[in-house]
Design brief:
4-stranded antiparallel β-sheet; 368 residues; alpha+beta
Length: 368
Amino acid sequence: GIHGEPTGFDPVPFDPMMPLSLTPSQTGPQFQNVFTSEFGASVFSSFESMSTTLDKSHWGVHGGMAPDQCTLGFQGQCVGNNPMSQRNYPCDSTVITYFGNLDFNATGESAFKQQLYLCMLSQALIMKQQIETMRAVNMFGTLIWQLNEIWPTGGWGSLEYGSSFGTAGQVVGGRWKPLHHFLAAFTFRDQLAVCGNGGQCYVRNDAVTPFRGVVTVDSIDTVTAIRRSVYSEQINLVAGAGTTYWFKLPTLPDATRSVLIASVTDHSGVVVSANPVLLLPPKNMTFLKANVSFTVTPKPNGATVKLTSDAVALFVTLTTLANGRFSNNSMIVVPANPVSVDFIPFGSFDANLFAKSLRVEHVAYYLK
């Protein structure tokens, strides 16, 4: 996006941190440690949130017109009429880093949806990689900026603008962006398993109670959809914070066509986190064009959405105009293994609005 283009503006890719560079180190409160505050990645919001405040001719992250010319840095003065100068922080570089070059100048509903989905997913991936790097060392604070957007546009939030009163396209409390689902499902869980370069992995317990269970690492072939077990070990971690156990995978699958699933399961059989690990950015991976479909089953207060796919579909994301959130989102769906997620309303549930506005996106939908 263009917040106003300074002289020489040329978005370039940065280090995607895939695979992560991991080195075993001592962790725990008895060792010198660090608190990080604060860090984040700029991002846009969903098409539903952003499109209602823009004329259709400006449905694009570059606004469909020449950029404003700005001087004096971040709080600079801009000259021009590009409406995106009031609506964004750029995400060109993050999208290029993880998904490759994109026509950021394109406009229209389809183009805008593609740009916004890849932008939000890029934020989730860079933050995921950064936080997993931090949790590999003796760091007890990862305070991120920021929680929610303060207007329906670009910013730093993991939640969209949260008012549905007077601004069309918003939901009460703000939609969860992919990053927020990542944080809830694995990145910020007390127990997390992560793998990186050369098959170096760790599992960490940041709970104040001991943890007993098993850590497993499976690989999913993004072409054949075959899932194989790579590693499994019983673990018994003392109370945290910062209890870390390091291990190494005996073999590594082909990074160009594999996703690792690093899971932690407690002693009762409950999976407490299942972390999808990419060893390369999606732009450098091989996957098939996937056709993802869904069915909706109403519940007394909410609905269940069943997702199916004919090929491995990366980071399948559901969006709706109804007030509420999904129990899981931005996930991996593989053939012959449907995934069901619940929609949890915020307040009263508008079943008709939910059904007619529900849509699905995934990586291959835009890149194949």
